[in-house]
Structure formats: C-alpha cells, structure tokens
Amino acid sequence: MELRHIRYFMAVAEEMNFTKAAEKLNIAQPPLSRQIKDLEEELGTELFERTSHSLHLTEAGILFKQYAAQMLEIEGRSKADISKMGSSLKGLIYIATVEGYGPHMLAEWISGFRKLHPDVSFDIWSGTTDEIVHRTHNGLCDIAIVMEPFSDPDIISKHIHSEPWAAIIPNSDPLASRKGKSIKPEDIADKPLIMPSRASRNEEFRKWMPDPQKPLNVVCKVAHMINVRELAKTGVGIAIFPRATGIMGDDEYVTVKNIDHPKAIASYLLIKSRKRRISPACEAFWEYALGE
What we know:
Elements: H1 3-15, H2 18-25, H3 29-43, E1 48-50, E2 55-57, H4 59-83, E3 91-97, H5 102-116, E4 120-126, H6 129-137, E5 143-147, E6 155-170, E7 182-183, E8 193-196, H7 199-206, E9 218-222, H8 228-233, E10 238-242, E11 254-259, E12 265-273, H9 280-290
Helix pairs in contact: 1-2, 1-4
C-alpha cells in the first residue's frame, strides 16, 4: 500500500463518484478504479458498495476512511516539521487539551514560549482524556493535557495542576442560597446531576456519597464543558465539573460552590508518548511548560 492509494481512496470517499474523484485527482477514471480495486484486494475486503446508480462506503470503508485521514494528516505534519527544521527553533506543535483549567494553562505557556521562540506555531485540539490519549498513541498530537485518573505505560505523564471539583447550581435550587462557599456530597446525592461523559467519573463521584452503591441521578452527560453552564442555568440539574468550568462565578442564574470532600480534587497531567520521538520545538515546549 502506497500513499497514492490512500489519496485516491479519500478522493473517492469524499466525492462518492469515481468520475468526479478522477477529475479532482487529474487522472483518468479507469486507472483510478484499478487502483481502488488493487487496494481492496490488498486489504481483503470491499471498501465501496457499488450499484448502477450509487456508491456507498461499506463498514470496512468507513473504518478505513478514519485511518486514511490520520495517515494523510501525519504525512502533512512530517513534511511541515522537516521543512521548518534549521538552526533556529521552528516548527508546528500539535497539542490536545481537556477543558476546565487546561486552556488557561495552555494560553499562558504559549504566550510566554512564543516570546522566546516566535517561529514556533501551534495547532490545538480539545477533547476528553480518553480521546486525547487515543490521539497521542496515534501520533496526532505531540503533547497533551489530560485529567486523572490516568495510567498508561506507553505514556509519560507529569502532574501540572490541581483544583477542586465544584457544583454549578441553578439559583432555583435551595442549595444555591445556602450560606458558605462549599457543599457536601450528600447534599447532591439525590439531585438531578450533569456530569462529564467519561465513564470513570460516575464511579469516582459515587465514592464521595454516603452510599457508594446507590446509583446517581444523572440526567445529562457532557463531553465538552461549553454546554455545562447553559444546562445548569436552565435548571436541568446541578453540574459537577472542575472549578475552572465555573470560572465566571455566580450570576443571576447559577451559584458555584466547591464540593467539600478530601477526594474531590481534579488533577491535570501533561503527557507525551513514550514510543514516539517529538521534534526539538516540542521538547523545548515540554520543558518550558514544566519549568525545567
């Protein structure tokens, strides 16, 4: 399998038409059809379902398209990084981060680092810890910020920040007007909850409660925190997220209170692959972020 096979496949998968894909690639249609057939034979499965009037990706084709996109992205990155190598520190750093306090740290690091190395640029992707670890394994990001719990022998991790877990409470709930800047886990044990979509969070939060075996009343799971405050504001439930998610503080719609429990601490890690070599610019940024 060669990169041209990947490019040809992606062109057909995007156009869903061999004639249009051939025009896009500036080649004749018969050679394109032959190359796709060769690729299917090499993989041992059909990637497209062909009829007289339509073309569709098979299940194998849908999966292969995901891998093909990653391979072309890595090819583009390698060309960009190598072309920018020279005596001074240059290059493009691919970074992924969870939300919460991650974007704040990243902004501070990039601002300071670019004052020292103005020829270095950044490509930033946001997602959940599980998504980011997957991207790190597949070489789609050089350095990343994730949250604990986390354990992976193929990943190097360094602790960089901790903050309390907090409850973002609709002001319509009596808890919002209770005196004090914190609440106990038992105060929300039976409340409708909005929580991160990461599977391990549900088990983690239950351990804070008086009865860890009792299921939580989770009405909404959220992967991206931009939705959290809006959901709490409209009274959907009480959101449990790192304190930084409620960084705007109290307003006429919600009140933010820390969760008073010794284990209600959100910890952030800086990670990179143990098996993949990163560029000099990436190594310099890693050291800068860690203060080394």
